[in-house]
Amino acid sequence: MRIPLDYYRILGLPIQATVEQLRQAHRDRTQQFPRREYSEATIVARKQLVDEAYAILSDLEQRQTYDGSFLSKTYGPELEQVSPSSEINLEKIQQEEEKETKLQQTEEILPKLASRRLTRGISSHGRENPVTHEFEPNTPSIEIEDRQFVGALLILQELGEYELILKLTSPYLINNSIAVKDGRFGDPVLVLPDIALTVALANLELGREQWQQGQYESAATALEAGQGLLLRENLFVQIRGEIQADLYKLRPYRIMELVELPEEKALDRRRGLEILQDMLNERGGIDGQGNDQSGLGVEDFLKFVQQLRHYLSMAEQKKLFESEAHRPSAVGTYLAVYTFLAQGFAQKQPALIRKAKFMLMQLGRSQDVNLEKAVCSLLLGQTEEANRSLELSQEHEPLSFIKENSQESPDLLPGLCLYAEHWLTEEVFPHFRDLSDKSASLKDYFADQHVQAYLEALPAEAEATNQWVVVQPRRGHDTEETFYQKETDQSSALDLEKKRISSVGNAATATMASTSTGTSNQLEASSYQSPQETYKSSSIDIQKQGNSLSYSRYSERVREKSRSSLPQLNENMSVGSKELPQSMLEQSPRRTSTRREPVKIGRLILIAVLGLLAIGLIGFVAIKTISWLANALGLG
């Protein structure tokens, strides 16, 4: 059997190596032991090849003969093109006519080796040896005995020739099993596990190399091939565990590589989403505490999901985050809100925006999401409710921008319209694969007939507000239950709503027109971030506090990015800060929204009057009692 190895490579030395270097290399290679899983037979075969290489190269005459054959075999084609005036003696090379003649000359030059090793590529069973012709004819090679095959594979493993190992062993991998049970390479009980081990380790190291090179799917294929071989042969549980650990850590990289593919690669992209779903199930959700063996903590996984959104379409994000919201997951709910808002506005489906508003009302129990609710109310034509949400919001910088652009208006509608367009274009759309190059236009949105018909059919603002009844949690329960009242069917659109929707559309149009000369110039002069810059800077750099992560931390991080990209209004506004508040892991009083109940003046007056009457009655009784006691004592 001929193997693509040479004696210098076996010892790990160049052809210019000295005698002392040969001696030291032989000593080192002899004292070097492979993994403990290898059998003694394979270790002995390896040592035989190392000893043979040292014996040939340490003998001066045999080394000169071997070097001549080695150079002729390796550099023959190049030497044929060298000028006759070269110092290299080309007399023998010029006399060679055919490949068969070269082989015969080699046999004459190396009688000692040829008589003992050289064969014609025919195995002992009368079949052509598949290994003999698996490599290039100019590749240095040596002849070995069949029983030394496993030792040669081990040496190739140590040299990092992983692909060559797979190529040499492929003819013996028949029907997913190693065809070495006939004893050709030695005792099958020992040889079979050793070949399987070498192939599995080659796949493991090859997968790691491809991982480092950014070829994540190829790396996964190599790792799975090695693991599959060990599983079929039921061998080496520990090494299977090593491979599985790498496969777990590789999953986030595979997901990113697959979802980055163009839309035409639908099957590959779907496989990436399936792997992501497996990770989510193991973690218990986006903000779950489960261990998916990927090595990503809660914060790092949130960063990963935020980066991933840029490559997912609206439909993909809707399916993913709506499912996460039902887990339930607060972060999944918040991301679902963004998805419904983006899809509802881009595809002019206000029903999705209404659904996003309902989800925000649920989140509003523990987090200030009034700014997002104001945008939803605006897009649903509920202007009064939008103004009320703005009054409750604690988002100072966006509110300053909105007020600055509503100075000549009795309400905040003009500034809110401008902010909504900017927010959708710069902060929402860039996170969707199919919206990253789109811009938001309220004028086009409200001009759509489907939008107008839907908004006109909505119940009045007061009724819409009362459609959600939040029930306080019972004692002993940690969860809050939110009950939705069923919407009552309406036979016709309300005239009041028609006027309201019309006024919103006109206001949006007027706002866009009025800002074309004044405020819009200010926007154009501002340094907006491009969608790509927005995506890069929106990775969630969350400060770790303990082992828990609340939704408020994630949502405020997203809104902090939104505030940072607003146009500057004055020198005192710090809108470019990338520092994040420390309230992401705990309920911050500033971020917690509370309902402001109107003061009941009538009740307070009634209570005061009753109090005065009670005090007067008590005084009257006290005076009568004292008078009675005085009279009683006087009579005594």
Which terms would index this structure?
29 helices, two-stranded antiparallel sheet, elongated, 6 strands, Helix Hairpins, mainly alpha, 3% strand
Tell me about this structure:
The protein is an all-alpha fold and 636 residues long. Among the domains are: 1-119, Orthogonal Bundle (Helix Hairpins); 315-471 and 490-539 and 550-570, no CATH class. It is built from 29 helices and 6 strands. The protein has a two-stranded antiparallel sheet with strand order 1-2. It has a two-stranded antiparallel ribbon with strand order 3-4. A hairpin with a 2-residue loop joins strand 3 and strand 4 (177-178). Helix 10 (188-212) packs parallel to helix 12 (237-259).
How do you describe this structure in short?
With about 625 residues, this protein is mainly α. It has 29 helices and six strands.
Strand proportion, as a percent range, falls in under 5%
What share of the residues lie within helices? 55-70%
- Spatial sequence of strands, sheet with the most strands: 1-2
Alpha-carbon distance between the termini? 138 Å
Number of helices: 29
Tell me how many strands there are.
6
The biggest beta sheet is recorded as: 2 strands, antiparallel
Shape assignment: elongated
Which structural class do you get from the secondary structure elements?
mainly alpha
Radius of gyration: 40 Å
Low-confidence stretches: 78-130, 464-503, 511-551, 561-599
pLDDT average, as an integer? 75
